[in-house]
Amino acid sequence: MARACSVPAVILPALVFGLACGHEKVSIRCEHPGEWPHTAGAEWTARVIATAGYERTGCTGSAFVIDTGGTGPSGHDLYVWGWRGRVPPNYSKRRLRIGGAEIQYDRLRATWQAGERVLWVEAGPTTRRLLPLHRVRRLIRASLEVD
Questions:
Q1: What's the total number of domains in the chain?
Q2: In angstroms, rounded to a whole number, what is the distance separating the alpha carbons of residues 40 and 106?
Q3: DSSP string, 35-85
Q4: Sign of CA dihedral 75, 76, 81, 87
């Protein structure tokens, strides 16, 4: 017999804030449909972006878009998303250490472990190749600081 999630009366106010049966429900404004903007991973990613000082310029439904500033052939924007989990151990043989994080990257994406979460960045809408990783150093550091 399946056991239902019971919620004591003292927890009832928490339901108003989107907590039920141990699952946190958040909602980040996003102009496209998708499940990810309503997850704790999206909320954490938004806090990382804000802590790093970047502006969120869009949301695809599965990632935020940030403007890293600057101009040039490498572009200036990135898709950014994260969630609770582990970095794939062999995503890429190309690795770099920045701010205490081991970054695995290729020409389009980079990923790293940030505590119990993993963050990904990908070349954005106007960016053909992943920006040089030193241009997102603030994002890397913020991901290691934000809980």
A1: 1
A2: 27
A3: SGGGSHHHHHHHHHHHHHTPEEEEE-SS-EEEE----STT-SEEEEEEEES
A4: positive
Token pair recorded at residue 98: 């920045």
Count of C-beta atoms within a 10 Å radius of residue 79: 21
Secondary structure (3-state) at 15: helix
Mean pLDDT of the chain: 82
Q: Which residue has the higher pLDDT, 85 or 25?
A: 85
DSSP 18: T
What is the identity of the amino acid at 111?
A: T
- Give domain status of residue 136, yes or no: yes
Beta pairing class for 19-20 and 23-24: antiparallel
**pLDDT at 61 exceeding the cut of 80:** yes
Full domain range(s) for residue 72:
9-145
In a domain? residue 4: no
pTM value is: 0.79
Instruction: Give the C-alpha separation, 123 to 21, whole Å.
Output: 37
Q: Is the pLDDT of residue 47 over 80?
A: yes
Supply the pLDDT for residue 72: 65
